[in-house]
Amino acid sequence: MDEIYEKLTDIFREVFDDPEITINPETTADDIEEWDSMSHINLILMVELKFDIEFKQSEVMRFENVGDLAEAVRGKV
């Protein structure tokens, strides 16, 4: 697992308050019971904060899975 996925895993565990969460590029909101619209906002904000980046709304709207999120992060760091 690369550094971005390690950091994203930590973020997911913090946002969803679940130390057992594991993610992969195919992970979607359907895979995490607590992942709703409010937690999605918190997740994106935490990713921006932890990676010191900022997403445009149009970018966020295109994320279909964790792989899309990770690639967007990779393009900004």
Task: Count the E strands.
Answer: 0
What is the molecular shape?
globular
Task: Sketch the major β-sheet.
Answer: none
Helix content: 55-70%
- Overall pLDDT, averaged? 95
Strand content: under 5%
Low-confidence stretches: none
Radius of gyration: 11 Å
Q: How does the helix and strand content classify structurally?
A: mainly alpha
Number of helices: 4
End-to-end distance: 17 Å
The helix/strand series, from N terminus to C terminus, equals HHHH
Structure description:
The protein contains 4 helices and no strands. With 77 residues, it is mostly helical. The longest helix has 15 residues, at 37-51. The radius of gyration is 11 Å and the shape is globular. The mean pLDDT is 95.
Offer a quick outline of the entry.
With 77 residues, the protein is mainly alpha-helical.
